[in-house]
């Protein structure tokens, strides 16, 4: 009887050409991928050279120190395939067999981040914040400014300075 050699799961190989995969790299948007060691990205021609196999790795959701407003469970921070960030309820999931969402469906999209600045607004004297959009653009804006979701209009001071 022939002995079956167990497949090594610790060394992933490229399903296209059978070569070993390169180390995991993290993209600027926080996604993780592994390329085939026989392939490489040429930044000048913007083309893949050699084997073009890319394995996208699932991004581990980060548990936040925030509670879901719907059910009180902790929220997790996830990044979509397109690099958009969202907070979602940790009890929410996807039943692949039934093709429907399970658990809590609370989701909050994150459009950008704000950082406190030690500068005063030239218009109203309140503190300024540094706002970074989801696409990486930065601007200074007044900390009193906000967005009224119900009325769909800006509130507070409208001072904005793009950097
Ligand atoms: Zn390959
Ligand atoms: Zn929830
Ligand atoms: Zn202001």
Describe it for me?
- It is a single chain.
- By secondary structure, the chain is mainly β.
- It folds into three domains: 25-57, no CATH class; 62-110, no CATH class; 112-162, no CATH class.
- Helices cover 0% and strands 46% of the residues.
- It has strands at 25-26, 32-35, 39-42, 47-50, 54-57, 62-67, 74-79, 85-89, 93-95, 100-102, 107-110, 112-120, 127-133, 138-142, 146-148, 153-155, 160-162.
- Strand 6 and strand 7 (74-79) form a beta hairpin.
- The protein is flat and about 65 Å long.
- 9% of the residues are buried.
- The model has no long low-confidence stretch (mean pLDDT 85).
- The structure holds zinc ion (3 copies).
Beta percentage is over 45%
* Integer average pLDDT: 85
Number of domains: 3
> How does the overall form come out from the CA principal axes?
flat
Classification by helices and strands: mainly beta
Tally the helices: what do you get?
A: 0
Write the layout of secondary structure elements.
Elements: E1 25-26, E2 32-35, E3 39-42, E4 47-50, E5 54-57, E6 62-67, E7 74-79, E8 85-89, E9 93-95, E10 100-102, E11 107-110, E12 112-120, E13 127-133, E14 138-142, E15 146-148, E16 153-155, E17 160-162
Antiparallel strand pairs: 1-2, 2-5, 3-4, 6-7, 7-8, 8-11, 9-10, 12-13, 13-14, 14-17, 15-16
One zinc ion (ZN) binds at residues 68, 70-71, 73, 89, 91, 104, 106.
Pick out its properties:
binds zinc ion; 17 strands; mainly beta; 3 domains; 163 residues; single chain; 4-stranded antiparallel sheet; 46% strand
């Amino acid at each position: 009887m022939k002995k079956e050699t167990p497949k090594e799961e610790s060394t992933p190989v490229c399903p296209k050409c059978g070569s070993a995969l390169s180390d995991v790299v993290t993209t600027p948007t926080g996604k993780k991928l592994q390329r085939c060691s026989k392939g490489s990205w040429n930044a000048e021609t913007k083309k893949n050279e050699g084997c073009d196999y890319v394995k996208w790795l699932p991004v581990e959701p980060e548990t936040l120190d925030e509670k879901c407003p719907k059910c009180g469970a902790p929220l997790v921070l996830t990044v979509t395939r397109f690099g958009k960030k969202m907070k979602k309820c940790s009890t929410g999931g996807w039943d692949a067999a039934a093709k429907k969402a399970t658990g809590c469906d609370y989701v909050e999209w994150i459009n950008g981040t704000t950082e406190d600045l030690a500068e005063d607004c030239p218009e109203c004297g309140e503190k300024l914040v540094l706002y970074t959009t989801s696409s990486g653009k930065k601007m200074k804006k007044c900390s009193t400014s906000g967005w009224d979701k119900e009325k769909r209009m800006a509130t507070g001071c409208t001072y904005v300075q793009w950097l």
